[in-house]
Each structure stands twice: as structure tokens, then as C-alpha cells.
Write a structure and sequence with these properties.
Blueprint lengths: L9 H12 L3 E2 H11 L4 H14 L2 E4 L6 E4 L3 H17 L3 H11 L4 H15 L1
Antiparallel strand pairs: 1-3, 2-3
Helix pairs in contact: 2-3
């Protein structure tokens, strides 16, 4: 996604999660997975799949009897993109403000505080 940045909606994110777990999958299998988690109609899910293909987030293997879909972007890439977008929108791009707000307003356990310290210590190396 770094080359061609695009946004994935919350609904599209649900489709991507299915395919990040297992792929390639046909649209009917994606529908079956999402019917367990959502109240969406099969037509809605197929529309989401088509939008993700158009955006370049999903690829289609048309060499088989049924189209099979697979992710063209990793979950990590999408998480980075979402984090960057959130950081810019809510905190004006300031990671410091985000972390300060998080630390001040969350009830962190001693273990979580230690894990954060360890992450920062690793970053310093």
C-alpha cells in the first residue's frame, strides 16, 4: 500500500481479515465466513469484494471454474496505513501526543508498563 495509498473501509476490513486468515477463497466461501459475523447479504459482501479488487487490495485468480480472491496487501501494510491515517487525523501526526494521551488515560497494568518500557528500550538500541 505504500506505493499506491488507499483507504479500506471498516466493512472492507472485515473481508480482508477473512482473506488474511486463509486464501485464496471463492466469493461464496467469503460470504459464508462473514454471515457468521455480520448480518450482511451476499450481494453486499460481493460488492465489498468488487470494491477491494478495484482498489487493488485483492487479486482474482480467474483460471479456475470459480473466481478465487487473495490479498495483494498484507495485514501489516494495512495496519500501518490505518495507524498513519489515524495519527494524522486525530493527533496532527504527533506520535508523542498519541502516546502521552494513551499513557495518561489508560489503566495500564505493571506488566503492560514493563512491555512498553521494553519496546522503547529496544528502539533505543
Amino acid at each position: 500500500m505504500t506505493n499506491s495509498s488507499f483507504r479500506i473501509s471498516d466493512a472492507e476490513w472485515q473481508v480482508m481479515k477473512v482473506l488474511w486468515e486463509k486464501s485464496p477463497l471463492t466469493a461464496s466461501i467469503i460470504v459464508e465466513y462473514l454471515k457468521l459475523e455480520t448480518s450482511w447479504s451476499p450481494k453486499t459482501i460481493q460488492t465489498l469484494i468488487a470494491r477491494l479488487v478495484k482498489k487493488g487490495a485483492l487479486g482474482v485468480n480467474k483460471g479456475v471454474s470459480l473466481n478465487q480472491y487473495y490479498p495483494l496487501v498484507s495485514q501489516e501494510e494495512c495496519m500501518r496505513e490505518e495507524t498513519d491515517s489515524f495519527l494524522k487525523k486525530v493527533y496532527g501526526g504527533s506520535l508523542h501526543l498519541l502516546i502521552a494521551n494513551f499513557v495518561k488515560n489508560e489503566n495500564l497494568s505493571s506488566k503492560e508498563i514493563q512491555e512498553l518500557k521494553n519496546l522503547l528500550d529496544e528502539k533505543m538500541k
